[in-house]
Design a protein that fits this description.
about 20% strand; IS200/IS605 family transposase; Alpha-Beta Plaits; about 150 residues; Transposase_17; two-stranded antiparallel ribbon; elongated; about 35% helix; Transposase_17_sf; alpha+beta; disordered C terminus
């Protein structure tokens, strides 16, 4: 049996699982990085990191987004998620940032003076178990196969 060498580096917890609906089959994994406003070190405040994670998990669950990994560093968050094809990236980020910002600033007096908890910007990258070059080769080979079948 042929195995993919990258499987050795993938935590089984993060194995790619396809989402099935009536009309689609999808695998949409995204890596997000976002920061507090002015890169303030809000996660140095005891309890903030755990509470932010809890709030983001709650909102993500409500949006049918599965969190595969969450890490809050001193001044930024890494978030690895699996999203349905009906969920837009900007709408998701707006929802989790807005919800967590409102609740965190209400619960932690040190953060109430901040006009906004998060910056408007974020980094996002797609992630999956297949490289872009592999997909391109597959598509190219499909064209050749289709042409051969017609001739």
């Amino acid at each position: 049996m042929k195995t993919n060498k990258t499987d050795d580096y993938i935590n089984p917890k993060y194995k790619n699982v396809y989402r099935h609906t009536r009309t689609t089959v999808s695998l949409l994994n995204y890596h997000f990085v976002f920061t507090p406003h002015y890169r303030r070190k809000i996660f140095a405040i005891p309890g903030v990191g755990e509470r932010v994670e809890q709030l983001i998990r709650e909102k993500s669950s409500a949006l049918d987004v599965e969190i595969l990994n969450f890490t809050a560093n001193v001044d930024h968050v890494h978030l690895f998620v699996n999203m349905p094809p009906t969920q837009g990236i900007p709408q998701y980020m707006h929802a989790i940032k807005g919800y967590s910002s409102k609740v965190i600033r209400e619960e932690f007096p040190q953060l109430q003076a901040m006009a906004a908890l998060w910056t408007r910007s974020y980094f996002v990258s797609t992630a999956g178990n297949i490289a872009s070059s592999t997909i391109q080769n597959y598509i190219d080979n499909q064209k050749k196969s289709e042409y051969k079948r017609r001739t």
